[in-house]
Amino acid sequence: MSVYLGIDIGTSGTKTVVCREDGTILATATAEHPSYYPQPGWSEQEPEDWWRSTVQSVRQALGRAGVAGAEIRGIGLSGQMHGSVFLDNQGRVLRRAILWNDQRTAEQCRQIEEAVGGRANLIRLVSNPAFTGFTAPKILWVRQHEPQVYERTRKILLPKDYIRYRLTGEFVTEVSDASGTLLLDVAGRCWCKPLLSRLQIAEDLLPRCVESQEITGQVSRTAGEELGIPAGVPVVGGAGDQAASAVGNGIVRSGILSATMGTSGVVFAHSDQVQTDPHGRVHTMCHAVKGAWHLMGVVLSAGGSLQWFRNHLATAEMRLAAERQVDAYDLILALAAQAPPGAEGLVFLPYLTGERHPHADPYARGGWIGLTVRHGWRHLARAVVEGATLALRDCLNVMAELGIVPQQIRLSGGGARNPFWRQLQADIYGQRVALVNASEGPAFGVAILAMVGTGAYRSVPEACDATIRVIEEIAPQPASKAFYDRCYEEYRRLYPALRELFPRLAQLAQG
């Protein structure tokens, strides 16, 4: 039997999927790894923890699938985007990786835009404005604040590409993940030499950049012994987690969009041409489909807001869920559903780690607006879920302004697993939403890329047609849609009303 591995280095853990080339999932396994928050707005992880969780999840998944390592025909890699791993001339990690949701680089973003003569010029060069989460401002921050680290740096890798290095010894990235560094000429699908020159970043600090389905190396003997697989297994380029998730949901043609409610929330649209928003309110990046691009709106703390609520305000519910042996999120959402739509005038802003789209504001802060003595725990929970979903509607609205009209929105992530949240998304987006048979997200998407790269299919769309199908559609409820249209009009007024306050609150947090 021929099987393929998809490995996704996520923010909370590493997930491995084992599947056949017809798309049948044989097994999955996830191993967690920790995050560190040394200062408010900072977010870091240890790359060695990613490797440990990769080894653990691969071994567990293969054991559960009951397949031998010799049956593996290819491996695809995915991971959280934008993170920065600094390596010395021996390939050793020099500092913790700075993550996608880290907000320390507002000043460096300003410097980058200034270096090229403004935001409009930067968008012309790399199709995106500077965001604090991107890799380029992190590189400048390390150069300015940790010069001893930068002087020793010989390679800068993205999270999944560090795992590729550990697997194969090769320094390679691919176009979808490289798009999120702010250093890629997205239209030309290569490193942007004019910008690198302006920023005085040597191109040889960056890995070789290829298409997502291209074979980038083979598993080494040392890595194979750790993972329990033979040396020589091909490893393809893979994709950043959002492009990988899109492949895993069949978002490989125009008109089909996805809405992913994970730690971050993402609206993703395939495009056969390079389309950019002149205001930078959504990303434009290379797709994992060769010769294609995508637009992407990112809400930094969508499902992350519910995770925060669970961890800090739902400890009793977590204990009850453990006693009943059910998922704590399902229990929280069931209780949230008991509050009326709109949570009786209570609105939650999900800006717990700043916000990316459409506001591009690292100082944005979260909060409930409209609290009264009538509101209780269920109202608070429902407002969190509604607020995260309204934030994704912000991104859909920007895409609509650019002429992207969805024929179908496919759901994935935690928001797709719960029927209450699925219906809520249909009502708030005002669109039919769909579920597909594949629910393993980025890990499944890069397993598909491994199939294409090793010759099981001729193209990514062909592979998706063979492995992915719609299994359920949910229509918006007319009365609920009309009500949430009104809610959205009030929601979208809140950020402009509070924008000037957020930086002052950030200063208070620093003492």
List keywords for this structure.
single chain; alpha+beta; 7-stranded mixed sheet
Protein described:
With 511 residues, the protein is an alpha+beta fold. 41% of the residues lie in helices and 21% in strands. Strands 18-19-17-16-22-23-24 form a seven-stranded mixed β-sheet, sandwiched between helices. A hairpin with a 3-residue loop joins strand 16 (256-261) and strand 17. Helix 10 (241-248) crosses helix 17 and helix 11 (303-313) packs across helix 12. The longest helix has 25 residues, at 377-401. The radius of gyration is 22 Å and the shape is globular. The N and C termini lie far apart (61 Å). The model has no long low-confidence stretch (mean pLDDT 95).
Radius of gyration, in angstroms, nearest whole number: 22 Å
Low-pLDDT runs of 5+ residues are none
Structural class: alpha+beta
The portion of residues assigned to helices is 40-55%
